[in-house]
Amino acid sequence: MITPNPLYPGAKVALVCASSAVPEERLAPAVEAVRALGLQPVVYPSCYYENRHGYFAADDAQRAGDLQSAFADDTIAGVLAIRGGYGAHRLLPLLDLDAIARTPKLFCGYSDVTALHTAFNQCCGFVTFHTPMPSTEYYQPVDGYTAACLRRALFGPVDGPLENPEGMAMTALQSGSAAGLLCGGNLSLLCASLGTPWEIDTRGKLLFLEDIGEQTYRVDAMLTQLRNAGKFDDCAGVLLGAWTDCVPEYPERTLTLPEIFSELIVPAGKPVLSGLACGHTLPTMSLPLGARAAMDTELRRVEVLSR
């Protein structure tokens, strides 16, 4: 697995939108936020509100073309997804992944961008970064923890402990230790990958999961789908992040998220840590997907390994 070169002060970075449209009033602050990191943002057409296509930032061809062009441009050092939403997985058949594999670059985003992380990790063979996005989080000031984690992802070094903010403890749901490549991201996108050429491959890997706005029975249904597809049996360990606004439809008769995790993930017998400060939440860490990492439930520790 290739780890793309980190960014550097003055590096040109592409801002692309592979999913939903950027709210018009957020584009300028997002661009300024990237500039404040010491980078030179290059705004691609999919970021402009006037190019929107229904609930997408632009039509599929434009969004895919922006991604393809950003990776092909030798002057661009990194590619930042400006926001998530919906629609990135529609682009996968349109991308020349062989060409992207020949020019690996630092690529950042999360949520709907999970579809691209999986494809770039598995088909192109390079590490990508699950990070906050310019028009979703850091178009406005964020906490010091989130900012420091983002800068680590952008500028390195990547290896070392992945620690929660002070006072936010991880919880062991199943004891043990494991090591493997980090994979995963947004649960709904991982489920949408099943049965496609870009299906998530969890074999021997540490699987990270998070989601937002799904009622608990929907989390149950999607975890059941992953369980039935053998993804928990295949993986080396599971890291559970934030489950933001994942509430029961009927609070008086429901399973809680911990109960769902215990019934669907724990029986695979793999180490499980929950409470990782990552996902649709602030503060949030940044994760190098595709990098080799280790987890130890007794120490409540996750670490990115140098090799």
Automatic annotation (TrEMBL):
Going by the UniProt record, its keywords in alphabetical order are:
Carboxypeptidase, Hydrolase, Protease, Serine protease
Q: Which InterPro entries match?
A: Carboxypeptidase_A_C_sf (IPR027461), Class_I_gatase-like (IPR029062), LdcA_N (IPR027478), Peptidase_S66_N (IPR040449), Peptidase_S66C (IPR040921), S66_fam (IPR003507)
Domain (LD-carboxypeptidase N-terminal) ranges? 13-130
Residue stretches making up the LD-carboxypeptidase C-terminal domain: 180-294
Question: Organism's domain of life?
Answer: Bacteria
What SUPFAM superfamilies does this protein map onto?
Answer: Class I glutamine amidotransferase-like, LD-carboxypeptidase A C-terminal domain-like
Active site at which residues?
Answer: S111 (nucleophile), E210 (charge relay system), H280 (charge relay system)
Q: What is its EC number?
A: 3.4.17.13
Q: Which GO terms describe its molecular function?
A: muramoyltetrapeptide carboxypeptidase activity; serine-type peptidase activity
Q: Could you state one GO biological process linked to this protein?
A: proteolysis
What's one Pfam family here? Peptidase_S66
User: What family does the Swiss-Prot or TrEMBL record give for this protein?
Assistant: Belongs to the peptidase S66 family.
Q: What name does UniProt use for this protein?
A: Muramoyltetrapeptide carboxypeptidase
> Whose protein is this, by species?
Intestinimonas butyriciproducens
